[in-house]
Structure formats: C-alpha cells, structure tokens
Amino acid sequence: MILWNMCSIVLTILFFFLAKRLHQKRPRLLFSPAVLAPAAMIVFLLLAGIPYAAYSEATSWISELMGVVTVAFAVPLYRNWSILMAHKRMIVWSLATGSLVAILAGVSTAMLVGLGKEAAISVIPRSITLPIALAVSEAIGGMPAMTAVFGMLTSFAGVFMAPFLIKKMKLRHPVSLGLMYGMGAHMLGMVKAFERGDTEGSSATLAVIAGAMITVVWAFALLPWILSWLAV
Description:
By secondary structure, the protein is mainly α. The protein has 12 helices and no strands. It has helices at residues 2-25, 33-48, 52-58, 60-70, 74-79, 81-85, 88-112, 117-122, 130-139, 144-169, 174-196, 198-231.
C-alpha cells in the first residue's frame, strides 16, 4: 500500500513536469500540463487496470495542498487592491450577472440535451473553483464527480475561447480581462490572466473568490425554483 502511494505521487509529478516541458516547446492549450498530465494518468490507470478511487486516495494530499497554494494569490491581490476597489461596483455587477447566466445556461443546456435531473443539478456550481464547487454540489444534491467534469470542461473552454473573445470584443482594460478569465475559467483562467499581467491576475483572483461566494448564494436561492422546473 505504501509502495503504491509513493508510485502514484511520483507518477503524477513526473507526468506534470514532462507535460510542462512539452508545453514550453509547444505553447498551445492542447499541450497544457492541465490537459496532458491528467490524460497521461488516465491512460496509465486504464492500462494498469487500477481503479480511480485507489489513485485518488493515494494522492489525496496533493489535492489538499491546493488550499494552501491558493493563499499565495492573496499577495498580488493585496498589491492591486486600490485599483480593484476603484471598480468595485462594476466588478460586483459583472460577477453577479456572469454567475447567474452561467447557472441558468448550464441547467437549461443539461436538460435540453437530455442529461437528466442529477446532471442539471450538478452543473449549477460548474463556474467556481473546484474545491468549493464539489462541496456545493454535494450540499444541493448533485453528483460531485459530475460537477468536477463540468468544471474542468468549463475551465478549458474558457481559456480556449478567451483570446478569440478578447479580440472580437476589443477588450483592453486589465480589470475586465482578469474578471473574464477568473469568472469564465476559474483557477486555470487565473494562471492565464497572470501571464498577461499582475493587474489582470489580481482581478482574476478576485473574480474566483467573489464569484464563488456569489454563485453559492445564487445556487441556494435558485435551487427551489430549479427543482420545481425540473419536476415539470
């Protein structure tokens, strides 16, 4: 058991660094470590016939470290706090609107394509950072595993579509760019926003934090209405 735990951790880190090296040579979304490392691990688990539950348990402490690492994002957030507060009204309204649209669009799409009631509920918190999204999903009666899939797909789609939307909509303001990345692609969007600049990254961080809080409020406020709509 101890040997398997060590192998799981070593393989996870190895796949990540190999994917990172490849991404440096081919800086495209499909070659991102966030895409390649999980894909490589999935292939390995399938070929080895190892259940995901065993792998998840062996590497659980890596997931727990995400909460610790997230604290580091408070530094640039504090550094650019005055800039962000100068646009606080726009930020609050943008995040509230974006969160509401994400929930309604997700639930409507899930029902239109026939994914069922459980999927429709699970998609509600897809636009917030994964640790909070899983907790919210479980609290409202969704399936955390399905929420994780929807969340990752949302994150990848947001990062993939962002350059096109920025060009089409002619977005220039760093706060607007950061809010779009943070609300549209949460943690992965934060990373891409910091690549553009410190202010962009800070506003993306604020979008992830405040957006999560707003989405939690929307989720519980809208849940009775959504459940009654799904029952029709």
